[in-house]
C-alpha cells in the first residue's frame, strides 16, 4: 500500500502577497497596444471609398431613379387613359367631366409627377416635362378646339357654329401662340425648379420630393369639394332644363336631352351673349303664381351655369397655392418671419396676396345666386363672364409671369453661388438676387448655430450625468 505523508498532501491557508511581488508580477505583463487614431481614420476612409461601397451606392441610386421614372411613366399613361375615357363617357351620356379631368391633371402633374422628376436627370426631366405639358394642352381642350377650328376654316363641319373667317383665324392664332406659349412656359418652369432645388438641396432631394408630395396631398380635399359640386351640376343639368323649359312658352323637346326655343344662346357682339327666350319671358314684376315660378326656375338655371366656372377655378387654385408656396419658401428662401414682418419684396407680396384674393373670389362667386330684380338673364351672364375674364387676365396670368420672373432671379442666384467666394460681386446683380443670396447665407448660419447649440447641450447633459 502507498504511504500517505500528511505534511505534503494537506491544503494550507492562503498566504498574503506583498506589494513588491504585485508590482513585480504587473511589470512582467505586456502593456496593451496603443490605438493609432490616424491609421484607424485612414482605414475607415479607405473602406468608405472602396469599390464595393461605391458600387452599392450607385446601384441604389440607379434603382431609385428607375423607380421614379417608372412611376412617372405610369402616371402619365393613367392621365392619357383617363382623358380618352372621359371623352367617350361625355359622348355617350352628355355628362360633363371636364372640370374633374382638368383639375386632377393639374394636381397630379404638379403634386405627383413633378415631385418625382426632382429625382431624375436633366435629360429625363426635359422629356417628361414636355410630355406632361402636351398632355395637359389636350386635357384642357386646346388641341381639340384647334383641330375643330382648322377643319371648319377649310370648309368642313361647323364645330364652332356660325363664326366668321376672321374670328376663326384669330382663334387659331390665339390657340397656337397663347396656348402653346403658356404650356411651354409651364414646362420650362418645372425644368428650372428642378435645377434650382437640386442646387439648394442636393444631399436631401428625396426629403424635398416627399415634402412637395405631402404638401399637394394636403390640398386634395380643397380640390375634390368643388369638383364634386360641378359633377353634381352636370348630372342634374338635364332635370333643371326640363323643369325650366316647361314654363317657357313655345319651347319644344327635340330629344331626350335637347330642347328648342328655350335656352339657346346667341352672340350679339364679340364676347357679348344673349338668351333671347329667357330675356323675353323673364318677369321683372311678379303678378301671378306662374310668374313667380318662372322667375324661380330661370334664376336657378342662371345661377348654376354662372357658378360652374368659378367652381372650376376654385379647384385649380389650391395646387397653384402649393406651387406658389414652393416658389416663395424653397426657391426664394422666404421665411414665415419675413411674411409676418413684411420683409418680402414687392413681387413676393404681390404673388401671395393675389393668389389668396383669387381663391377668396372663387369661393364667393361659386356661392352667388342671380338676384330677383335688377338684371335680365343675359346681363347677369355677361357680368359673370366679365368677372371671370378679369380673374384670368389680371389674376392668373400676372401671377404666372411673376413666378417666372422670380425663378429667373433664383437661377441667377444659383450661378452666383456656384462661383468662388472671391469672385462673387453682388453689385452686378439685381436687388432680388442679392436678397435671395443673403437669405441663403442667413439660413446657413442659423443651421450651423443650431447644430453647435445642439452639440453643446449634448455635451453639457453628458457632463451632468458623469457628475
Describe this structure in words.
The chain has 467 residues and is mostly helical. The protein is 74% helix and 2% strand. The protein has 18 helices and four strands. It has a two-stranded antiparallel ribbon with strand order 1-2. Strands 3-4 form a two-stranded antiparallel sheet. A hairpin with a 5-residue loop joins strand 1 and strand 2. Helix 4 (51-93) packs antiparallel against helix 5 (98-117). The two termini are 69 Å apart.
C-alpha Rg (nearest Å) = 36 Å
Residue-averaged pLDDT: 80
H/E element order: HHHHHHHHHHHEEEEHHHHHHH
How many helical elements? 18
For the report, how would you describe the main beta sheet? 2 strands, antiparallel
Total number of beta strands: 4
- Give the end-to-end Cα distance, rounded to a whole number of Å: 69 Å
Q: How much helicity do the residues have? A: over 70%
Low-pLDDT segments, ≥5 res: 1-5, 462-467
Widest sheet, order of strands:
1-2
Secondary structure layout:
Blueprint (H helix, E strand, L loop, with lengths): L5 H4 L9 H10 L8 H12 L2 H43 L4 H20 L4 H18 L2 H12 L11 H36 L4 H14 L1 H16 L1 H9 L6 E2 L5 E2 L5 E4 L2 E3 L1 H6 L7 H18 L1 H24 L4 H5 L5 H20 L11 H41 L13 H36 L1
Antiparallel strand pairs: 1-2, 3-4
Amino acid at each position: 500500500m502507498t504511504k500517505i505523508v500528511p505534511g505534503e498532501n494537506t491544503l494550507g491557508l492562503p498566504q498574503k502577497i506583498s506589494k513588491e511581488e504585485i508590482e513585480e508580477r504587473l511589470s512582467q505583463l505586456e502593456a496593451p497596444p496603443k490605438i493609432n487614431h490616424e491609421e484607424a481614420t485612414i482605414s475607415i476612409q479607405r473602406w468608405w471609398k472602396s469599390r464595393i461601397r461605391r458600387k452599392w451606392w450607385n446601384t441604389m441610386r440607379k434603382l431609385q431613379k428607375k423607380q421614379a421614372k417608372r412611376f412617372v411613366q405610369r402616371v402619365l399613361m393613367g392621365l392619357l387613359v383617363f382623358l380618352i375615357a372621359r371623352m367617350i363617357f361625355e359622348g355617350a351620356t352628355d355628362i360633363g367631366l371636364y372640370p374633374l379631368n382638368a383639375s386632377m391633371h393639374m394636381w397630379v402633374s404638379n403634386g405627383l409627377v413633378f415631385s418625382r422628376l426632382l429625382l431624375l436627370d436633366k435629360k429625363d426631366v426635359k422629356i417628361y416635362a414636355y410630355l406632361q405639358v402636351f398632355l395637359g394642352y389636350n386635357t384642357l381642350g386646346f388641341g381639340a378646339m384647334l383641330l375643330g377650328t382648322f377643319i371648319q376654316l377649310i370648309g368642313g363641319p361647323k364645330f364652332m357654329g356660325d363664326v366668321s373667317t376672321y374670328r376663326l383665324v384669330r382663334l387659331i392664332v390665339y390657340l397656337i401662340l397663347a396656348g402653346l406659349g403658356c404650356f411651354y412656359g409651364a414646362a420650362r418652369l418645372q425644368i428650372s425648379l428642378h435645377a434650382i432645388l437640386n442646387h439648394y438641396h442636393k444631399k436631401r432631394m428625396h426629403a424635398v420630393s416627399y415634402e412637395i408630395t405631402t404638401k399637394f396631398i394636403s390640398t386634395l380635399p380643397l380640390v375634390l369639394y368643388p369638383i364634386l359640386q360641378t359633377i353634381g351640376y352636370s348630372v342634374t343639368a338635364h332635370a333643371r332644363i326640363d323643369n325650366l323649359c316647361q314654363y317657357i312658352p313655345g319651347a319644344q323637346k327635340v330629344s331626350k336631352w335637347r330642347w328648342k326655343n328655350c335656352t339657346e344662346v346667341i352672340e350679339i357682339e364679340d364676347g357679348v351673349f344673349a338668351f333671347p327666350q329667357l330675356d323675353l319671358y323673364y318677369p321683372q314684376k311678379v303678378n301671378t303664381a306662374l310668374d313667380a315660378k318662372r322667375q324661380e326656375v330661370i334664376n336657378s338655371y342662371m345661377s348654376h351655369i354662372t357658378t360652374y366656372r368659378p367652381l372650376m377655378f376654385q379647384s385649380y387654385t389650391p395646387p397653384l397655392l402649393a406651387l406658389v408656396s414652393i416658389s416663395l419658401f424653397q426657391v426664394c428662401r422666404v421665411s414665415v418671419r419675413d411674411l409676418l414682418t413684411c420683409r418680402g419684396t414687392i413681387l413676393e407680396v404681390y404673388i401671395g396676396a393675389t393668389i389668396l384674393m383669387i381663391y377668396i373670389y372663387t369661393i364667393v362667386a361659386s356661392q352667388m345666386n342671380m338676384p330677383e330684380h335688377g338684371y335680365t338673364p343675359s346681363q347677369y351672364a355677361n357680368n359673370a363672364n366679365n368677372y371671370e375674364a378679369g380673374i384670368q387676365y389680371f389674376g392668373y396670368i400676372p401671377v404666372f409671369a411673376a413666378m417666372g420672373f422670380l425663378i429667373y432671379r433664383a437661377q441667377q442666384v444659383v450661378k452666383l453661388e456656384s462661383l468662388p467666394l472671391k469672385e462673387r460681386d453682388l453689385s452686378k446683380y439685381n436687388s432680388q438676387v442679392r436678397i435671395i443670396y443673403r437669405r441663403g447665407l442667413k439660413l446657413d448660419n442659423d443651421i450651423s448655430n443650431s447644430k453647435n447649440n445642439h452639440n453643446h447641450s449634448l455635451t453639457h447633459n453628458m457632463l451632468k450625468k458623469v457628475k
